[in-house]
Structure formats: C-alpha cells, structure tokens
Amino acid sequence: MKMKRIFAIGVISLLAGMILTRSISAVVLTSKPYLHKHSFEGLILNINLKKEIFNEIKSTKDKILVVNKIIGDRRVKYWEHVIDNIFVKNDSILLHMDLGYNKVLEYAKIWSDIKIISLNFGKGEFKENCLWKRKVVFPDADDCGLFYTFYDKQDYPLFCWEVRYNDGNTIFYDFNEIPIGYGVPAPSSGFAIQGYGDSKWRYWRENAQEWYSKWYGSVNSISNPSINQISYFIKNESIDTELFYVIAHSGGLPTRFLANKNMYYEASQLHYDMVNRSSMKLAVLCCCSAMTDTGPGTLSYEFRKGEMSDTVVIGYIEMGNCSEWTQSLYWQNFLFEKINKGFTIKKAFDRACAQYPKIADYVKFVGDPNLKIIDDKSSMPEYCYNYNLTSLLFEYFASVSFAFKVNVFSISHLVTIVKLNKDLNPRATYHLRNN
Q1: Segment 310-357, tens digit of pLDDT
Q2: Percentage helix, strand, coil, to 5, in the chain?
Q3: Where are the domains of the chain?
Q4: Which single residue of 5, 238, 246, 389 has CA 20 to 30 Å from 403?
Q5: In a 3-state reduction of DSSP, which class is residue 118?
Q6: Strand-pair partners of 182
Q7: Distance between first and last Cα of the chain
Q8: pLDDT digits (tens, 9 = 90+) for 252-304
Q9: Contact 108, 431 (CB under 8 A)
Q10: Beta strands in 343-387 (DSSP E)
Q11: May I ask the CATH architecture of the domain 199-410?
C-alpha cells in the first residue's frame, strides 16, 4: 500500500524553502532553518519506509549518539548535532523502536545545515563554581525561544559559550568571555536568599495548573505561601486535596523545598500534615534534589505515607546538572497529555522520558504502576495549548508553585494562564509517530 505523507509547512519569518548563503565571523550558513513537518498518522511502517529512515540517519553528518537505552517498552536512540565540538541548539534526531527492533514506533528529526570555517572561542576560563561549559550555536533567533534572553540584539547564527553554574544559573558568553545573555535557571542545590523561584518557572507551574484544573475543576493561585498556608491545603479534609505540584529550590536535600523567601517546607511538617488523611494520589516535585532519596523522612515518602498502592510521586534528581533542563517543560506537558488520554501514570512517565530522553536520567517515578487519573479516555477531549506571551513581561516574581485537587493550589503572584503549544520549535522537523 502506498504510504500517504501529509506535509505541514509552518509560517516563520523566512520564505519556506529559501536557500541562503551568508558569511558571519567566518561562518557560512548554507541552509536557513525553516519549519518542514512530515507526518505519517496512524500508519504501519513498511520495510521500505523503515529502510528510508535508517538510511537518512546514517547519512546525517556531525551527529553524536547521546542516548541509547530502553525506556519503558521502547528502545530509544537520540542524537545531537555537534560540529567541531560546537553543539547546535535544538537540533536532534529521535528514534523509537519496539524491544525486538522490528518496528519503528517514532521518528523525529530537527536539523540545520551549517558549515563552520574557522572560529576562535578563546580558552573558556570561567568562575570556579562552573558546573559545566560548552560551545553552542543558535542558528536563528527563534531558537532562543522563551528560555533564553540576550542583553543586546544579536546576529545569527550566534556562536557563544554556554556555562551552567552550581546555583543553577546559565550564562552565555561571547568569544571574549563577556556575558551576553542568560537562560532560565534550573532548580538547584545552591541558591541566593532571593533565589526561591524564577519568574519564568511560571510556565511549568501554570502548565500543571491547566491540566489539574482540567481533571478536577477549580484552581486557586497564591504566591510565596507561608508554611501554614501549605499545611492548610494539604491537611484540610473539606478540601480533599489529591494532586500536588511544586517547582522550587530544595537546597540540595530531598526533605524540603523553599516555599518563600525565608522558609523551607520540611518533610517533618508534611508528615504532621498527612497524619489524618490518605496518601496523595499524585505529587509532582520539581525541585533539584527532590527524588535523590525516597525513603522515610523524605518528601516522597511522606506524600505516599510510605505506601506503594494508589499513590505516585514523580520528581527531579539533580536537574541542575541537565544540559537541556528546559525540555522538562515539554516533558511535563507530554506526561500530562498521556495521563489525560487514559494512560497509567507510569506508562505516561515512560513515554514522556522516551520522548525527551535528555530528561530521563534526571526524573524518577515512585509508587503504583497501575494508577490512573483518567479512567475513561474517550470522555476527555484533545487539549491544545497556546502561549500567552504577555506573561513574559512579568519579571522578578516568585514562582515557587503548587497545584492541588478541587481547590488546585498554585503559588504565583499572577493568575494569567500560560498554555503550552505542542510544536514550539520553529525548526526543520520530520516527525513520524505510531501511538
């Protein structure tokens, strides 16, 4: 049977298919990135198409295999685009196969055609508290997306140093090692006294808020909660909280998170708050060290009350070390999307990790592998997200965040809903999926 291919061309600032050649700092961009999406919906791959995919991967130059592992019921391979030790931001190849290597379950490619002649990055000598550093290139301004901010107007392709520090901050430097921009800081073990939350963490929290409210109803938002406020929403029987979400610093411990500028919410307090209620159905802990330990005395253990039935806790493991930690927003949305379709939380977790494999080593699932939030997936319509970019204007607000059941408790100064678009990357994309 002849395979039917559906082509969707995205609208960006350049004409689709235009080939440009320009020289910038001894760099030639031979093909300007554009959105070119191929979808094969609901089709079983034949041998010829499978061979075509393998041939395309084989013929793609300057790729490095960074993930090759089994995640859930899939074998996952993930390549990054690296030219002369320079990482091309947002470029990747993703391949999912069944455990027997017989079927291609998913294939996605985002790639830019860039030729590098000569560059002088300097020695790359940065502060001692540098966690890691690497040379990167942003092919186009669109590649900066919502997560990267530059101080001045930049020429693209933009070559620079990307440096992650122990406090979770990501700073970009030019060839002379002068700061030119920064990224959304990751939840980290270190923090400044005012570092209880970054304003753009709101995207993570409000994404969770949207899904939680879809499943349970009303949503309440509050910023910088006191310990008493948190306790009230957890232990109050009239509220009947079943879902919990937080993104915050943890100070390097799985026993706490920074609730406001001055105070931690501790596992010992959580133990007290959980005494007269059942275990939390689902708690998502987006704190750097939330799941480094899940035994007695930890947040994970106390939310589950030590149980492994009818309760699940998902959270970060040293997320500050992840080079692509901002993908955790897409990972999170994919997780909730699959839960919404009636998947068990464990299967949704595995699929999200397979879809965003750079995140997989920095997240952990503990609890009931058979637990579901949605039992009747036919009753849940598809959910389409769109970004409300006006929320980017609100800087310097706390973004330590929660979400709960019926009164889904979400901490923020603002109630603006920011929704996530499934196709945020305006890049050359080839995507095949068999659900």
Answers
A1: 999 999 999 988 889 989 999 999 999 999 999 999 999 999 999 999
A2: 20, 30, 50
A3: 6-117+427-433, 130-183, 199-410
A4: 389
A5: coil
A6: 149, 171
A7: 20
A8: 899 999 888 778 999 999 999 999 999 999 999 999 899 999 999 999 999 99
A9: yes
A10: 363-367
A11: 3-Layer(aba) Sandwich (3.40)
